[in-house]
Design a protein that fits this description.
The strands form five sheets. This protein has an eight-stranded mixed β-sheet, sandwiched between helices. Strands 3-4-5 form a three-stranded mixed β-sheet, with helices on one face. Strands 1-2 form a two-stranded antiparallel sheet. By secondary structure, the chain is of the alpha/beta class. Helix 4 (130-143) packs across helix 10, helix 6 (204-216) packs parallel to helix 7 (236-244) and helix 8 runs parallel beside helix 9 (304-312). The chain has helices at residues 4-11, 53-65, 81-98, 130-143, 160-163, 204-216, 236-244, 258-273, 304-312, 345-364; strands at residues 15-16, 21-22, 29-35, 38-45, 71-78, 117-123, 148-152, 171-173, 176-178, 180-182, 185-189, 225-229, 249-254, 277-283, 288-289, 296-297, 316-319. The N and C termini lie far apart (49 Å). The protein has two domains: 4-79, 2-Layer Sandwich (GMP Synthetase, Chain A, domain 3), CATH 3.30.300; 108-364, Rossmann fold, CATH 3.40.50.300. Bound molecules: adenosine-5'-triphosphate (ATP). Adenosine-5'-triphosphate binds at residues 123, 126-132, 154, 157, 159, 232, 284-285, 320, 322-324, 338. Keywords: ATP-binding, Hydrolase, Iron, Iron-sulfur, Metal-binding, Nucleotide-binding.
Length: 365
C-alpha cells in the first residue's frame, strides 16, 4: 500500500540535479496526498522557472510510479525569499565547514585534506587551443566517471560556454551560485555574468576578486578534479591563479612551432617558480591526417611539444591533430562546437590524456 511515508522515503533518492541533494532533504517536497493508487504532491523549486524542472518532474513521477501508483500529479511552486535565504545559508555553512582548517586566503576547496585535484591549463600565447584542451579534458575525465568542475579563468577571453554550447545561465540562490552542468562537468565562467559579447573592462584586482568568488560562492559540491582554463601568457590573472592555488598542477598547451614552444616555456617557468607540478605538455595542431591515404603530415612546424617537455622536465602527454569537431545540427541540444565525440579519434586521444593524468595524480596521492 502506498503511504505518505513510503512516498517520502522513495523520493529521498531523487536528487536536485544542480545541488546533488535529495529533494526531500532540501525540503522541496510538500503536501503529499494519497488517494488509493493516485498520488498528489507539490514540489517547490529553488527558483521559479528552474531550467531543470522537467527533469525533476520526470524523476519524481517515475519514482512514485515504481511504488505502484497509477496516477501522479505534481504541481510546482517556488521557495519563498526566506526559505531560499535559509537554504543559501545552509549551503554556505557546508562550504565553510570544508574550509574550517583552511588558512588565510586559501580557497575552500583547497582546505587541507580536500581530495580535489586542481589542474590549470596554460599556454604561452592565445589561439593555440588551450580552451579546447581544457574543455575536452574536463569532459574526458567526466566520461571516465570522475566528478569534474571547470572554471573559465580566461576572464577577458572567456570561450568555455561557447565551446560547450551552453546558453543557460547559472541558478543563483541568494548569494550562492550553482554552476551549470554540461556533459557531466560543472562549469563556471565570467561569460555567464556579462551581457552578450560586451568586452570585460575590469582591472586586475577586480578580476582576482571575481576568481575568489568562483571558489567561495560557487556551490561545487564534491569534486575529484577542478580544471582551470587560464588566460594565455603570464599576466596578472595567470599570476593570481598561481598564488591563489598553491597546490594546483599544470598542463601546458603549445603548437609544434618552435616559437610557440619558446613562448610557452615562459608560462612553464612561472609554474615552476610557483612550485606548481607540471603534469605534462599537450602539443595541439601537431599534424593533419590525409583523408585519402592516412599519412600524417606536420603543418605548423615540428618538435615544439617535445622540446618544451624536455626543458620543463616533464612528459609530452599527447600530440593532437588538426581536426574540427564534426558539424552537427545547431538545434541539437547535445551540440557543442568545441567538443569531440567520445567515439572520434580526437575523443579517444583525450580519453588517453585523461587516463594518464588520473594515473599520475593517483600515484601522487
Ligand atoms: N586540434 C585542433 N584542430 C582544429 N582546430 C582547433 C584545434 N584546437 C583548437 N582549434 C580551434 O582553434 C581556435 C582557438 O582555440 P581555443 O579558443 O581553444 O584557443 P585558446 O588557446 O584558448 O585561445 P585564447 O587563449 O585566445 O582563448 C578555435 O576555433 C578552436 O576550435
Amino acid at each position: 500500500m502506498i503511504t505518505r511515508e513510503s512516498v517520502l522515503e522513495a523520493l529521498r533518492h531523487v536528487r536536485d540535479p544542480e545541488l546533488n541533494r535529495s529533494v526531500v532533504e532540501l525540503g522541496m517536497v510538500r503536501d503529499v496526498v494519497i488517494d488509493g493508487d493516485s498520488v498528489r504532491l507539490s514540489v517547490v523549486l529553488t527558483v521559479a522557472g528552474c531550467p531543470l524542472k522537467a527533469r525533476i518532474e520526470e524523476d519524481v513521477v517515475n519514482t512514485i510510479k515504481q511504488l505502484g501508483a497509477k496516477e501522479v500529479h505534481v504541481t510546482f511552486g517556488a521557495m519563498t525569499d526566506e526559505e531560499r535565504a535559509a537554504l543559501a545559508a545552509r549551503l554556505k555553512g557546508e562550504q565553510a565547514k570544508a574550509l574550517e582548517s583552511a588558512q588565510g586566503s586559501v580557497p575552500p576547496l583547497l582546505a587541507p585534506g580536500s581530495p580535489t585535484v586542481f589542474i590549470a591549463v596554460a599556454s604561452g600565447k592565445g589561439g593555440v587551443g588551450k580552451s579546447t584542451v581544457a574543455v575536452n579534458l574536463a569532459v574526458a575525465l567526466a566520461r571516465a566517471g570522475h566528478r569534474v568542475g571547470l572554471i573559465d579563468a580566461d576572464i577577458y577571453g572567456f570561450s568555455v560556454p561557447d565551446l560547450l554550447g551552453i546558453d543557460q545561465r547559472p541558478t543563483v540562490i541568494d548569494d550562492v551560485i550553482l554552476p551549470v552542468t554540461r556533459f557531466g562537468v560543472k562549469v563556471m565562467s565570467m561569460g555567464f555574468f556579462v551581457e552578450e559579447n560586451t568586452p570585460v573592462i575590469w582591472r586586475g584586482p577586480m578580476l582576482g576578486k571575481m576568481l575568489r568568488h568562483f571558489f567561495s560562492d560557487v556551490h561545487w559540491g564534491d569534486l575529484d578534479y577542478l580544471i582551470l582554463d587560464l588566460p594565455p601568457g603570464t599576466g596578472d590573472v595567470a599570476l593570481d591563479v598561481h598564488q591563489l592555488l598553491p597546490q594546483s598542477k599544470e598542463i601546458l598547451v603549445t603548437t609544434p612551432h618552435a616559437t610557440a614552444a619558446f613562448v610557452a616555456a615562459r608560462a612553464g617557468a612561472m609554474a615552476l617558480r610557483t612550485h606548481h607540478e607540471i603534469l605534462g605538455v599537450v602539443e595541439n595542431m601537431a599534424y593533419v591526417t590525409c583523408s585519402a591515404c592516412g599519412h600524417k603530415g606536420p603543418i605548423f612546424g615540428q618538435g615544439g611539444g617535445e622540446k618544451l617537455a624536455r626543458e620543463l622536465g616533464t612528459e609530452l602527454l599527447a600530440q593532437l591533430p588538426l581536426a574540427q569537431p564534426p558539424a552537427r545540427d545547431i538545434d541539437d541540444p547535445d551540440f557543442a562546437p568545441g567538443l569531440y565525440p567520445a567515439d572520434s579519434e580526437m575523443g579517444r586521444l583525450y580519453a588517453r590524456i585523461a587516463a594518464r593524468i588520473d594515473e599520475k595524480c593517483r600515484a601522487r596521492a
